[in-house]
Amino acid sequence: MARSRPRWFIALLGGSAVFVAVIGVAAANPPKFLGPAIAHPSVAPDFTLRDQRGRVVRLSAERGKVVMITFLYTHCPDLCPLTAAHIDAALTRLGPRRKGVVALAVTVDPKGDTKSAVRAYARVHRLPAEFHYLTGSKTALERIWRLYNVTPVRPGGPDPDHTLYILLLDKNGKSRVLFDALAKPTAMAHDLGILLGSTAG
User: Fold this and answer.
1) C-alpha–C-alpha distance, residues 138 and 109, integer Å
2) Which residues have CB under 8 Å from 113's CB, separation 6+?
3) Rounded-to-integer distance, Cα 31 and Cα 25, Å
4) Where in the chain are the domains?
5) What CA–CA distance (Å, rounded) separates 15 from 188?
6) Which helix (H) or strand (E) holds 104?
């Protein structure tokens, strides 16, 4: 089970490689995001993984699009599928503008998230074309978890919790908004709409 109020808030404030500070005024007239805005946007760390279709996905290659990043595992019974559904609903609310958004879900359980498990998850949850469920080697994933302050699932451990949030990047690859696991589709769609209309920053 993922935490409803995950570790990201405290961890990121403690000095992440991704963010300098969360929630604050980044400019004289900052966008009016509904989610927690990142005060000092910086380019999110790059990574390369494969999605449920076997295609190589490189974060930096998505420049020009708004990117949603989250961390899931296929056997999660509650918040992971809810997060996936909320991301899908947010994309649906955007209508034709959704073509300017890409959603990247990085696994936190490489052992359980096999190729077949990920493909089945995408099929069962009817993940849209914009949604990429990403897997890779343990070494590559551990680097990403570290850079994004993510605690993965601990197989066989007493606590199956993992870090779960939704990070929004602008078209320049900069971290702009950080939603928690209970983010609503309406709020995410609103903030995605702001970022879709933004080219500066």
Assistant:
1) 9
2) 73, 74, 107, 133, 135
3) 9
4) 8-24+33-196
5) 25
6) strand 101-107
Q: Per-residue confidence of the chain (201 residues) as pLDDT tens digits?
A: 444 334 434 344 344 444 434 444 344 566 799 999 999 999 999 999 999 999 999 999 999 999 999 999 999 888 888 999 999 999 999 999 999 999 999 999 999 999 999 999 999 988 999 999 999 999 999 999 999 999 888 765 544 567 889 999 999 999 999 999 889 999 999 999 999 996 444
Which homologous superfamily is 8-24+33-196 in? Glutaredoxin (3.40.30.10)
Show the DSSP H helices in 17-107 as ranges: 79-94
Tell me the CA distances in angstroms from 115 to 52, 55, 123, 143, 182, one per residue in order: 7, 12, 12, 20, 27
Query: Which residue type is seen at 44?
Result: A
CB 192 within 8 A of CB 93: no
Q: Which two tokens stand for residue 8?
A: 């990201």
**Beta carbons of 23 and 36 less than 8 angstroms apart:** yes
| 97 burial level (CB within 10 Å; 0-12, 13-18, 19+) | middle
- Token pair of 135 as six digits: 């897997």
Q: Using N-to-C axis directions, what is the helix angle for 185-196 and 79-94, rounded to 10°?
A: 50
